[in-house]
């Protein structure tokens, strides 16, 4: 199944390099898992890192000037979250609706991926398509402390809390939620 990987980054060039190198180590098929890098912050160093991978990266998306960021005065300490939300909203819409991908794997530049990260999403994509009560599939566990991990290979957990970082989203779900995408 075609599941492009969208890597979100900003100004952490070294983290982006490490993350892409890790993805390339576990990616078996560049046609099934093309890598797209979405960059905010206009960091030359980070852009150069992305470009240094050449044709191993299918596309580099640089966030265009979307006009001034409007942050209510009471939320001025949250302006970073407003920027991140705008970056995600723009790029998710661009990749799913302009580039017309059916589903995408979403990562951030500082995420460590396991050897079976891409296999996990390939295996669970049919479940996401079949079960309309699922919003996304996530491979991230905020409580992933070794002693608390259940190692049953056939065990999945459902949650009503959004476990961001390393998740699979369909265009159908994105189009259902995009108009309600939070500002922060």
Draw up the topology in text.
Elements: E1 5-9, H1 13-26, E2 35-39, H2 44-52, E3 59-62, H3 79-98, E4 103-108, H4 117-130, E5 137-138, E6 167-170, H5 171-177
Parallel strand pairs: 1-2, 1-4, 2-3
Antiparallel strand pairs: 4-6, 5-6
Helix pairs in contact: 1-2
Membrane topology: Single-pass type II membrane protein
Keywords: Glycosyltransferase, Golgi apparatus, Manganese, Membrane, Metal-binding, Signal-anchor, Transferase, Transmembrane, Transmembrane helix
GO molecular function: alpha-1,3-mannosylglycoprotein 2-beta-N-acetylglucosaminyltransferase activity; manganese ion binding
Search tags:
transmembrane helix, 6-stranded mixed sheet, Spore Coat Polysaccharide Biosynthesis Protein SpsA, Chain A, 184 residues, glycosyltransferase, alpha/beta
Output the structural class: alpha/beta
Annotated CATH architecture: Alpha-Beta Complex
- The percent of residues in helical segments reads 25-40%
Number of strands: 6
Distance between the termini: 32 Å
Count of alpha/pi helices? 5
Shape: globular
Q: Identify the CATH homologous superfamily.
A: Spore Coat Polysaccharide Biosynthesis Protein SpsA, Chain A
Element-by-element helix/strand order = EHEHEHEHEEH
Main β-sheet, spatial strand arrangement? 3-2-1-4-6-5
Low-confidence region ranges: none
Organism: Rotaria magnacalcarata
Family: Belongs to the glycosyltransferase 13 family.
Enzyme class: transferase
Protein name: Alpha-1,3-mannosyl-glycoprotein 2-beta-N-acetylglucosaminyltransferase
């Amino acid at each position: 199944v075609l599941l492009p990987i969208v890597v979100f980054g900003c100004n952490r060039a070294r983290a982006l390099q490490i993350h892409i190198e890790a993805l390339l180590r576990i990616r078996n098929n560049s046609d099934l898992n093309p890598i797209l890098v979405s960059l905010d912050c206009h960091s030359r160093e980070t852009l150069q890192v992305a470009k240094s991978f050449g044709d191993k990266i299918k596309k580099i998306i640089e966030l265009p000037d979307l006009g001034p960021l409007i942050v209510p005065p009471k939320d001025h300490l949250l302006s970073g979250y407003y920027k991140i939300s705008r970056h995600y909203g723009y790029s998710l819409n661009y990749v799913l609706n302009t580039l017309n991908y059916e589903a995408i794997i979403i990562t951030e530049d500082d995420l460590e991926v396991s050897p079976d990260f891409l296999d996990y999403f390939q295996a669970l994509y049919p479940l996401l398509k079949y079960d309309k009560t699922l919003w996304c599939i996530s491979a991230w566990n905020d409580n992933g402390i070794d002693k608390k991990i259940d190692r049953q290979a056939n065990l999945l957990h459902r949650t009503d809390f959004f476990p961001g970082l390393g998740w699979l989203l369909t265009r159908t779900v994105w189009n259902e939620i995009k108009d309600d995408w939070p500002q922060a």
